[in-house]
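Hi F.,

I've been meaning to write this up properly since the lab meeting, where we talked about keeping a consistent format for the predictions we share between groups. The idea is simple: the sequence comes first, exactly as it goes in, then the structure tokens exactly as they come out, then a line or two of notes. No screenshots and no reformatting. I'm using this chain as the first example so we have something concrete to point to.
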Amino acid sequence: GFCRNIILNNPRRRNALSLSMLQSLRDDLLHDVKSKELRVIIISAEGPVFCSGHDLKELSSEDDVKHHSQVFEMCAEVMTLIQKLPVPVIAKVNGLATAAGCQLVASCDIAVASEKSQFATPGVNIGLFCSTPAVALGRSLPRKVALEMLFTGEPLSAQEALMHGLVSKVVPEDKLEEETMKISRKICESSKSVLALGKATFYRQITQDLDTAYKMTTQVMVDNLTLRDGQEGIEAFIQKRKPVWSH
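Output, unedited:
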């Protein structure tokens, strides 16, 4: 299986999520997503800023309300799409991630960051509260940490982001590629259909109460056993051999 690299490549505009950038990000995420070979997607960026969030030029009053709605709706679509994709999505962050850029990191399944990375939701400082980034932030950080970020606009260091669970790993800049690929390779060793089922279930159960979550996942475990790869994996384990996945 292979890993797709999506690179935000407009460093001159600090990789701002303009409407066109969001549209191409959506197209890249969806491209060939049903391919049996695709196993993991990595989102990284060119330049010192991973992503600065929305392009503020698009949000000035010259543009009408309809355009503003379109920008935020497209952004929400991309952020929720990441969690609906059947393959794991890893953010590989080397630099500053602010506002909707911070939301992007929070929305990925896994995030690996270099030590120099920073994370902020500074919208409050320019009179546009980061309410949509807060959706992703409030779901991946403790509430008081998210609110301090949202109220003050002050950045978290990479270590603070790790401590509070916004990122999964922090490594020196020269180890970022290696560490991200290590995780990616590990993911590629597993069955795609099993991972797809697991990912979809994880995001479904996390919003449920405990009893509902267990009822749902109990059924999913039973369904998992009916998958060819479910049986193959168990047989391989019992026979002390490497499993041969169905794709």
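Notes:
Residues 65-84 form the longest helix (20 residues).
The mean pLDDT is 96.

If this format works for you, I'll send the rest the same way.

G.
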